[in-house]
User: Fold this.
Amino acid sequence: MDLNTLWFVLIAVLFIGFFFLEGFDYGVGILLPVLGKTDGERRGIINTIGPFWDANETWMVTAGGAMFAAFPGWYATLFSGFYLALALMLVGLILRGVGFEFRSKDPRPGWRNLWDVCIFVGSFVPALLWGVAFGNIVKGVPIDGSMNYTGGFFNLLNPYALVCGLAGLALFTLHGALFLIIKGDHDIAGRARTLTKKLGPVAMLLLAGTFALSFKATDLFARNASIAMIVAVVGGVALLAAGLLSGQKRDGVAFAMTGVTIACSVVSIFAGLFPRVMISSTNPEWNLTITNASSSHYTLTIMSVVALMFVPVVLAYQIWTYWVFRQRVTAPTSEKPA
Amino acid sequence: MDAVALARWQFAATSVYHYFFVPLTLGLSVLVAIMQTMYVRTGDDQYKRMTKFWGKLFLINFAMGVVTGIVMEFQFGMNWSQYSRFVGDIFGAPLAIEALLAFFLEATFLGVWIFGWDTLPKKIHLASIWLAAIGANLSALWILIANSFMQQPTGYVLRNGRAEMVDFGALLTNPNVWVQFPHVITAGVATAGFFVLGVCAWHLLRGTHADFFRKSASIAALYAAVGSLGVGAVGHLQAQHMIRNQPMKIAAAEALWNTENPASFSLFTIADEAERRDVFSIRIPRALSLLAYNRMDGEVRGVNQLQAEAEAKYGPGNYVPPVAVTYWSFRIMVGAGGLMLLLALLSVLLVQMGRLHTTPLLLRVLAPAIALPYIANSAGWIMAEIGRQPWIVNGLMKTSDAVSPNVTVGMLAITLVLFVVVYGVLMGADIYLLRKYATAGPAPDAPTQPMSVY
Assistant:
């Protein structure tokens, strides 16, 4: 495997890690107003992701940084092209991050409700927009001969991309609900369990819809057909399994299964794209690829050494934190600033 | 306003705002770690209360630094895609390494620290705040390695229409890194020192929690003095480095229109920037040469000569940065720094004499003096970045060539307003919280529940 391919794979891995981890904390944020009836319950819900969410979000920052370092052409085209969508996502992420930290610092209900709304909106918007973004990446967008996106904001809001967005939203929310069954207070876990019975079919339907539409809207399954297709089917089976296992109260495995679905979705997208990173709907000659959008061999070598040295370390200590905070979080009964 | 101007305003607004929170994170993370180390070593509960009280203020500030930092990472691609394409081969690497080596460390172990008070053995919990503090300061190193390439490009070759990295080691040993990084770190120490000292002064004036704040103040005064001395000393070295490496920045910062030998130092200049001449100026003879070379003479090149040199090298154009902004931001930074040094040394002296809490005059000054490092920090970055203009990468790429060609004035205007409004509201909320918790004082006894949980 050459270095360009290695970095294409590594960026896919970073997105898998990001969507797997931040996926459930987006879901938890979205479910905050749905499952938390009282202030104490909402605090309990937030505490299930309290020690983790910031490190989870760092996966996105790292994926962005890796994209910049390994494929500056991809980073420049994607970020300047999906401009307003990314600006909205940033505002969401800002409100969410600040909301987690600020809500507890003042006991007035108005203050807490405000930040709860921010956490909800800030989780909902990115959870939706990531799907829209990847929908457009695989569908192809207008890109000119100097690698610049020439479409507008509304170009991104096409039906296919929106279905992808909704599918992502549903999947992350389901992933979050399954996480709350494992980690939440018993009342919260009970409500999350009831909700997954409705959420599961919705997510299944939307993902199946995305899969079907992809045959027409994209060439994902026409190119590296076998890999992209097999992986997508495995993802679908995993989602079905998640529903069945959750029904049998085998919650840990069910949660892992939505994780598999998320991973399969990313793998399927990247396998279908390879070796392209951005598809030009204007002219196939103007596609961005792992060759024409990449950094020099020297830079990729340096980055490979750094990644091989430090990714295992980061993984090790992050896994350790999940082990340290493996206990179920009980909802506080009284609310007072400490 | 054209796209370049709007993109610059957006970068200026978001980075000054981001940097409003960062230095306190850098300095206070270490200070809180020191306090907790004292607690673990002595078992004295007073240190535990200090760790929790200052730690809470640290966390309120920290969140803002994180979320505004994500905007910075996205912005290079969003607004400056031509820049990203031109230097991505070099600039992307330190950013990615920053995320992998520093952000993960900081984010992961801060989460462990916040929620681990009861779960973890004391020493492992202490290690978590140290790792978070190291992560924070390590992130400053990597971002400054990236910024230093813009100030003083090294280890590259121009190839394939872009700057390509040929020597990663040269990037790390860039001399600019090793004056800029210590300057930023010591500025963080000074910022945290003055922040803690100011809050202490507010309480000592009122006599609330007297024992707690006397003890905190004695640590903070020393911390502020170390930071202020360090930032001044390193700043001096940095200026000497700049005279060789970015002479135009220094010439603008000194409003030195023509080359002088020996060169005079401007105390106060009102200039006609368009005509490049002084309207009114008080200058100290030979002082700039002294500052530059540690001797009474030596040539310091002026704006006119440097402009002529640049035209000969790069072709016709204006290579002079906005002189007034560079000049005044430099003076504001140095002036604020000088006041900080004075106040910090005075505070240390009075702490030693056991009289800080009985000197209301100084206490009354120390509370508003919290603003001084903030002013100096902002002014310093304004000087560093404005003084480099018209270049985005010194001598390699002009700022006007760096913006995204497909991002319209309308899009830039929308996002500029969006960020300014959101940031403005959040900054208000953040300052409200910092004030509220700072003035409330520490909790009556050491609570055992996780500190940010309720």
Chain B touches chain A through 76 residues (CB under 8 Å). Residues 446-454 of chain B have pLDDT under 50 and may be disordered. The first strand of chain B starts at residue 156 and ends at 159. Residues 3-42 of chain B form the longest helix (40 residues).
